[in-house]
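Why do we care about 3D structure at all? Because function follows from shape, and shape follows, mostly, from sequence. That is the central idea of this module. The next example makes it concrete: a single protein chain, its amino acid sequence, and then its structure expressed as tokens.
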Amino acid sequence: MLQSGFYGQPVKIRYWLAQTILFVVALLINKSLLFPIIGLDVVYIAGALILSPIQAYPKWELLIVMLIVPFIMNVFQFWVIDQFIKDPMHSLQVQGYKAMGDSAEENYIYSHSSTFSSAESNDQERT
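And the structure:
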């Protein structure tokens, strides 16, 4: 069974390649689902409305349409796919939360209990 973000110790190319293929397949599915939507008149009208304030500046319009919007959309797309394929326990362990309770939420609350209690005591001292 693949564990997202773990490639073996030492790193095994087979694990990395399997996860990369999974990521690329998810990207291809995403692109193929979005392709028909791009041709809709609603998208064209929305784009024209959004870009209408800068129509007098074609270089700025080109910059937004060709660089800024695709960059933002790709970052969002990669983040969404990563949320689906990553192992939530692995990300908590990377952040420094080790398995102490039954669930990741309990681990997070347990690891921050001293922070929460000290914040509460500070609030009580102020009143």
